[in-house]
C-alpha cells in the first residue's frame, strides 16, 4: 500500500516536471570521446566506448542475469523502480558492516543515473534521476530495462556492456558465460577500478564469493554449486580494450580517473573531456627505446621499470612499468621493491644537517652492534669483509661502503635517518633500524625518483603527479592540480649530497662510466640488493630525475648483476636521449658552500706528497683547516685556483694552521 502511494507520488511528480522528457536521455547523440594529451599538447590516446557490443537479453546467459540481479537489485522484478525495502536492507547491512557493502539503488535507478552526462551532482539532478527512473519503469518492461542496463554498465578495462566484458575478460560471448565467470563479472560494476580481476585477482575472487553467497541466499543456486564455482580456476584476460601509447602511464591515469569519477563513468568515457597530463611523449619514447636496447639479448623473464620526473615540479615525464605491456600490465614503477644502497643518500643528508661533513672520517672495520632482541648485528661490505681503512663520508658514499654507512647511521640515529627519507619523499614505511642505509625498507621506484628529485631541486620537494588539468566539453575546468613545493632540506645540504653523488658516476665510484656516457653534469646512486636480487640506478641532472630498476617478478630470483651493470646503462641511454635538446648545465652552487680538495684518508686539505685527493663540497666554515702531512705551499696555490669562492679565507686558515699543524685523524672525527 505504502509503496503504491510512493510510486503514485513519483508519477505525479514526473508529470509535473514535464520538462524532463525521457526521450531526451534515451536518444542521446553520439557520445564524445575523451582525449588525453601530453605536456606539449600531443595526443596520447582517446578513451571512448566505441568498442561497445550491444546484445539482446536472450543472448546473456541465465547465470549472468541472475548474478547481476542477486548482487545489485534482488527485488528487481518486484519493485516499481524505487525500492524502499532494498534501501532499508542496504542501510541495515551497511550499519552492521560499518561501511558501504550494499548500495540502495535499484537497477532502474542506476540505469537512469547512467543516462546523464552532466557531472554536476545537484538536488535538481537527483530529482531528475528519480523522475527518469519512474518513467523508465512505465515505458519499458523489466526485461527491457535489464537489457538496457546490461548493455550500459561499465565492467572496467574499457569494457562497456556485458558482451564486451565477456569478450574482454573471458574471450567468449555473454550467452556462454558460466556461473563462476558470471559471478565474477557481476561483482565488477559496483566499483570497476577495484573489483575488476585485472586490478587485483584476489579482490575480484572475494567479490565473486559474495555474489555467489547472495545467489544461494536468494535460492537461485544451491550451496554445492556455489562451492564448485568458487573453486573453479578462472584466468581472466587483462588486456584492456583500448590500444594506447605510453600504456603504463595511461592505464594509471585512467585508473585514477575511474576512481575519481566512479559515480559518473559515462562522463569520463563519453563526456568529451580533455585530460592534460605531465607526460612528455618524446621522453617517453626515449625511455621505451632505452628499455628495448637495455634488455636486448637478456633473459626474457628479466623485467624492470623506469620513471622520470621533472625535479622542479614533480611532473612525471616518462613511465615504463615493464618491458611489454601486452605481456604484463603490472606497473613496476608503483610496486614496492627493496631499494638497496639507493637509500644511503637519505642518511648522508641527515648527517650533513647534524654536524657531519663530507670530510668526516669513519673507518671501515669489523664492528658489532648488540641488538634489542639479543644477539649482534655485524654489517659487512657488499661482497663481504672490510676495507680496514678510514673513509671520508664523500668517498664512503660514492664507493657505497656498507660498514661506514651503518656506523654513521648508528651515530646519527636511525630514526633521524628514517625521518629524512620520509621528508625527502619516501612515502612507504621506513623502519628506523641500523641497516636502514642498506635499503631494508621497501619503496617504489616512483617514490625513490621523487625523493632524489628533492636533491636535484636544491632541497625543495615536489610530489610526483600525472594530471595537470581536466576540462569538460564546454571547456569548464573540472579539476586542476597545483604543485605544492616544500623546502625539506637546506639548499647547501642538497648540494653537498649532490656533489658526493657526482662521484658515483666517475672513476672510483660504483658506476664509473656513466659520467662520460651522459656527457653532462649528473649525480646518482647504484643499488644492488642482497645476492644480486634487484638492481637499481637512480640519478639526476638539474633538469631530470630518473629511477631505473631491473629485476625479476619472481620472488627469490636474482639478476646476478649489480645496479651499475644492469640499471645504470639504461639510465644513461635514457638521460642522454631525453635531454638531447636541453643544454647541459651545472648544479647551481648555493651561497655559503665551498669546494676544497681533501685527502680521502684523513679528510684534511690535500697537497704535498699525498697524491690521492678528492674534491668535496662543504658548508663554508666547516671545511678542513689543516693540511695533510707533507703538504707544500706550491700545491696550495694550485688548489686555490680550483676553489669556487672563499679563497682568501683558505689562505688565512692555511697560514694559521701552519703554526699549529696537526693531521691526527681524531681531530676530524665526529
Ligand atoms: Zn668497507
Q: State the end-to-end CA separation.
A: 85 Å
Distinct small molecules bound, one entry per kind: zinc ion
Note the overall shape: elongated
Q: How many β-strands, per DSSP?
A: 18
Low-pLDDT ranges? 15-20, 631-670
Strand order of the largest sheet: 2-1-3-11-12
* Share of helical residues: 40-55%
Structural category is alpha+beta
Mean pLDDT over the full residue set:
85
Radius of gyration (CA) equals: 31 Å
- Major β-sheet annotation: 5 strands, mixed
Binned strand content: 5-15%
Determine the number of helices (DSSP H or I, runs of at least 4 residues): 27
Short recap of the structure:
With 670 residues, the chain is of the alpha+beta class. The protein is built from 27 helices and 18 strands. α15 runs antiparallel to α24 (568-578).
Amino acid at each position: 500500500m505504502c509503496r503504491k502511494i510512493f510510486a503514485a507520488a513519483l508519477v505525479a511528480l514526473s508529470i509535473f516536471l514535464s520538462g524532463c522528457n525521457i526521450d531526451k536521455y534515451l536518444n542521446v547523440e553520439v557520445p564524445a570521446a575523451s582525449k588525453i594529451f601530453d605536456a606539449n599538447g600531443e595526443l596520447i590516446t582517446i578513451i571512448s566506448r566505441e568498442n561497445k557490443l550491444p546484445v539482446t537479453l536472450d543472448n546473456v546467459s541465465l547465470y549472468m542475469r541472475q548474478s547481476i540481479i542477486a548482487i545489485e537489485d534482488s527485488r528487481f522484478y518486484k519493485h516499481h523502480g524505487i525500492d524502499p525495502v532494498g534501501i532499508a536492507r542496504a542501510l541495515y547491512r551497511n550499519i552492521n558492516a560499518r561501511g558501504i557493502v550494499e548500495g540502495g539503488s535499484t537497477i532502474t535507478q542506476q540505469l537512469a543515473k547512467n543516462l546523464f552526462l552532466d557531472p554536476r551532482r545537484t538536488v535538481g539532478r537527483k530529482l531528475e534521476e528519480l523522475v527518469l527512473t519512474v518513467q523508465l519503469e512505465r515505458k519499458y518492461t523489466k526485461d527491457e530495462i535489464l537489457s538496457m542496463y546490461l548493455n550500459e554498465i561499465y565492467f572496467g578495462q574499457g569494457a562497456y556492456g556485458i558482451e564486451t566484458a565477456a569478450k574482454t575478460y573471458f574471450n567468449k560471448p555473454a550467452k556462454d558465460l558460466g556461473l563462476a565467470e558470471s559471478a565474477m563479472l557481476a561483482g565488477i560494476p559496483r566499483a570497476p577500478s577495484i573489483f575488476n580481476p585485472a586490478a587485483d585477482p584476489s579482490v575480484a575472487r572475494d567479490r565473486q564469493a559474495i555474489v555467489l553467497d547472495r545467489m544461494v541466499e536468494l535460492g537461485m543456486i544451491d550451496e554445492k554449486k556455489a562451492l564448485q564455482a568458487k573453486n573453479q580456476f578462472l584466468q581472466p584476460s587483462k588486456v584492456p580494450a583500448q590500444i594506447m601509447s605510453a600504456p603504463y602511464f595511461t592505464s594509471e591515469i585512467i585508473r585514477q580517473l575511474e576512481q575519481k569519477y566512479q559515480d559518473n563513468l559515462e562522463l569520463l568515457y563519453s563526456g568529451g573531456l580533455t585530460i592534460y597530463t605531465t607526460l612528455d611523449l618524446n621522453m617517453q619514447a626515449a625511455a621505451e627505446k632505452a628499455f628495448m636496447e637495455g634488455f636486448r639479448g637478456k633473459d626474457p623473464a628479466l623485467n624492470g621499470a623506469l620513471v622520470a620526473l621533472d625535479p622542479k615540479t614533480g611532473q612525471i615525464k616518462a613511465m615504463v612499468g615493464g618491458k611489454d605491456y601486452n605481456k604484463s600490465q603490472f606497473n613496476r614503477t608503483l610496486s614496492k621493491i627493496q631499494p638497496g644502497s639507493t637509500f644511503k643518500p637519505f642518511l648522508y643528508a641527515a648527517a650533513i644537517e647534524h654536524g657531519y661533513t663530507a670530510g668526516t672520517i669513519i673507518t671501515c672495520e669489523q664492528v658489532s652492534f648488540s641488538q634489542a632482541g639479543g644477539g649482534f648485528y655485524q654489517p659487512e661490505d657488499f661482497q663481504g669483509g672490510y676495507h680496514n681503512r678510514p673513509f671520508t663520508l664523500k668517498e664512503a658514499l660514492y664507493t657505497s661502503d656498507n660498514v661506514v654507512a651503518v656506523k654513521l647511521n648508528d651515530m646519527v640515529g636511525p630514526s633521524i635517518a628514517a625521518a629524512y627519507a620520509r621528508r625527502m619523499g619516501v612515502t612507504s614505511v621506513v623502519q628506523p633500524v641500523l641497516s636502514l642505509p642498506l635499503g631494508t625498507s621497501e619503496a617504489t621506484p616512483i617514490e625513490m625518483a621523487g625523493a632524489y628529485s628533492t636533491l636535484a631541486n636544491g632541497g625543495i620537494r615536489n610530489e610526483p603527479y600525472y594530471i595537470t588539468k581536466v576540462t569538460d566539453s564546454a571547456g569548464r575546468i573540472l579539476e586542476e592540480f597545483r604543485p605544492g613545493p616544500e623546502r625539506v632540506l637546506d639548499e647547501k645540504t642538497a648540494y653537498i649530497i649532490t656533489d658526493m653523488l657526482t662521484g658515483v658516476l666517475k672513476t672510483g665510484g660504483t658506476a664509473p662510466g656513466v659520467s662520460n656516457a651522459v656527457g653532462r653534469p649528473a649525480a646518482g646512486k647504484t643499488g644492488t640488493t642482497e645476492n644480486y636480487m634487484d638492481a637499481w640506478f637512480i640519478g639526476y641532472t638539474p633538469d631530470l630525475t630518473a629511477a631505473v630498476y631491473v629485476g625479476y617478478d619472481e620472488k627469490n630470483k636474482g639478476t646476478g648483476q649489480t645496479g651499475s651493470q644492469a640499471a645504470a646503462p639504461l639510465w644513461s641511454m635514457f638521460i642522454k636521449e631525453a635531454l638531447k635538446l636541453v643544454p647541459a648545465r651545472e648544479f647551481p652552487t648555493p651561497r655559503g658552500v665551498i669546494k676544497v680538495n681533501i685527502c680521502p684518508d684523513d679528510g684534511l686539505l690535500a697537497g704535498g706528497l699525498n697524491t690521492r685527493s678528492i674534491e668535496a663540497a662543504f658548508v663554508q666554515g666547516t671545511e678542513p683547516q689543516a693540511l695533510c702531512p707533507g703538504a707544500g705551499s706550491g700545491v696550495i696555490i694550485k688548489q686555490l685556483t680550483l676553489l669556487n669562492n672563499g679563497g682568501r679565507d683558505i689562505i688565512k686558515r692555511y697560514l694559521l694552521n701552519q703554526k699549529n699543524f696537526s693531521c691526527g685523524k681524531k681531530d676530524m672525527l665526529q
